[in-house]
Design goal:
271 residues, globular, seven-stranded mixed β-sheet, alpha/beta, 8 helices
Length: 271
């Protein structure tokens, strides 16, 4: 995992996954060093990742007061229980649905929960974080937020895109890609991660996109995209195209068998 600052008081804890045939998917968590420090998501649920150790390079975990769980998928919850142990005064910001989903594997302690719905706000001492439902999401519990003080929008899975290299996924910026490359990556992700977008009413979908347009954030920080600085208009234009983009079609069994053969010594072997 790599850590680097974005803006004056926000740090990215970045990781990535290599998805054959798709690319390197960024997997970011964030630390907002507000008066009451906020950790946004807790990384991958993979045994060799130590999220709390990575967090310790940014802030003393015991100082954390809020753990904003944008949604309870396993690429967002890897370090949450270790962090709850290391941050005894922290509460998990989630929704009723989010907490319910977590109970299917390991429930969050009820006395550590703070339920917050879209259109509500959280006071973290020196600023107020405004919760909203991003226009693209893969989990019904998804809640992002806008920090008006820094003009940063935390968008969860929305605006994601696979990167061509792990280095770019973990330590780059979205504008390191050419505009056409980024657009293709974001449309691929939109149709892969939120396939429902291609069956919704485009006008209603556009109303959800407009809420980010009205925020006009200077920086967009998503889970599956390197930091995007002063690119909001261009990225909004891209996700507005998602309902009409080509649908994602994943590999079938024949492609899987070919992939498995490529892993054998000597590369591909005859079928």
């Amino acid at each position: 995992m790599d850590t680097h600052k974005v803006g004056s008081d926000t740090t990215v804890i970045s990781d990535s996954l290599d998805i054959p045939g798709v690319g390197h998917i960024p997997v970011n968590a964030y630390v907002l060093t507000a008066r009451e420090p906020v950790v946004v998501d807790t990384g991958l649920s993979i045994a060799d990742r130590d999220f709390v150790a990575a967090l310790g390079g940014v802030i003393d975990p015991a100082d954390v007061r809020w753990i904003w769980l944008t949604h309870p998928d396993r690429d967002h919850t890897g370090g949450i229980f270790d962090l709850l142990d290391a941050a005894p005064d922290a509460k998990v910001v989630t929704t009723f649905v989010g907490a319910g989903i977590m109970t299917t594997e390991r429930p969050l302690p009820m006395d550590r929960l703070y339920f917050l719905n879209p259109a509500q706000s959280l006071d973290v001492g020196d600023r107020v974080l405004d919760a909203f439902r991003p226009p693209l999401f893969d989990n019904p519990a998804t809640v992002g937020f806008y920090d008006e003080r820094t003009r940063i929008c935390f968008s969860s899975d929305c605006f994601g895109g696979p990167m061509p290299t792990a280095e770019l996924a973990e330590s780059g910026h979205a504008n390191d890609l050419k505009p056409e490359e980024l657009r293709a990556a974001q449309l691929l992700w939109a149709t892969l991660d939120s396939p429902w977008v291609q069956i919704v009413d485009p006008l209603k979908y556009g109303m959800w996109v407009d809420q980010i347009r009205e925020m006009n954030p200077e920086i967009v920080l998503g889970t599956h995209l390197p930091p995007a600085v002063r690119m909001t208009g261009r990225m909004i234009e891209t996700i507005t195209m998602a309902p009409d983009a080509d649908p994602f079609v994943g590999p079938d069994q024949a492609a899987l068998e070919q992939m498995l053969r490529s892993f054998e010594p000597g590369g591909l072997t005859p079928a």
